[in-house]
Amino acid sequence: MSLVKSKQRVADHGEVFTPAWMVEAMLDLVKGETERIDSRFLEPACGSGNFLVQILRRKLAAVELKYGKSDFEKRHFALHGLMCIYGVELLPDNIAECRDNLLEIFAQYLGLDEDDDLHRAANFVLARNLVHGDALTMQDSDKQPITFAEWGYLGKGKFQRRDFRFDVLTHSSAFSAEDSLFAHLGKHEIFTPARTWPPVTVAELARMQEESP
Ligand SMILES: C[S@@+](CC[C@H](N)C(=O)[O-])C[C@H]1O[C@@H](n2cnc3c(N)ncnc32)[C@H](O)[C@@H]1O
């Protein structure tokens, strides 16, 4: 794979992709987290997903080890693994490629075709989690504050979604510092979700994908 699309893009956006061997070496520095299905990763300049793709592969390998024998559990935990992967990317072609790359790996692992509810649900999740926007201004391409969905798996096929603003999340470490003025408030009081959604199933997520513009 070429690490550069054009000299102009390197000059304009610093677009140089990370080679596979380096991605693996860097992910090995946090190996345990990459192999945990529900660990959350955010790549603020994700390009076409060189890091996120390998993180997904590692999570799916963990799903196979733990839940490979049950189709129901495998499908739901694989979706939850995907739900825990986030990215921001400035360039529209890169973010589209990134979503496609992750969806292809997910679909291949579970043997899904495009009509499968789980394929549509994954598409919906990727459109929320992989944001076309600017990680520096923390605004999306419509100049709205970037909001990330936190997905939890409640079991029995139900997922819980809570939305948090990126700019608020990035201040979390300052608030929780021991000597901070706000330390006594605790994280939960300051970082309340912008929105909490009712629990949803794969079929409901698939329907949301069909209805989304
Ligand atoms: C050095 S490349 C790395 C891509 C990918 N992380 C990788 O390692 O292969 C940097 C990427 O960041 C994107 N980018 C540059 N400025 C950005 C910004 N302010 N917000 C989000 N993405 C940005 C570029 O379009 C490019 O795809």
Automatic annotation (TrEMBL):
Q: Which residues form a coiled coil?
A: none
One of the entry's Gene Ontology molecular-function terms is: methyltransferase activity
Q: Which SUPFAM superfamilies match?
A: S-adenosyl-L-methionine-dependent methyltransferases
Q: Which InterPro entries does the UniProt record give?
A: DNA_methylase_A-5, N4_N6_ade-DNA_methylase, SAM-dependent_MTases_sf
Q: Gene3D superfamilies in the record, alphabetically?
A: Vaccinia Virus protein VP39
Q: What class of enzyme is it?
A: transferase
Keywords for the protein's UniProt record, in alphabetical order? Methyltransferase, Transferase
Keyword Isomerase listed: no
Ranges for domain DNA methylase adenine-specific: 9-58
Reaction(s) catalysed (UniProt annotation): a 2'-deoxyadenosine in DNA + S-adenosyl-L-methionine = an N(6)-methyl-2'-deoxyadenosine in DNA + S-adenosyl-L-homocysteine + H(+)
Q: Which family does it belong to?
A: Belongs to the N(4)/N(6)-methyltransferase family.
List the protein's name: site-specific DNA-methyltransferase (adenine-specific)
Instruction: State the organism named in the record.
Output: Ottowia pentelensis
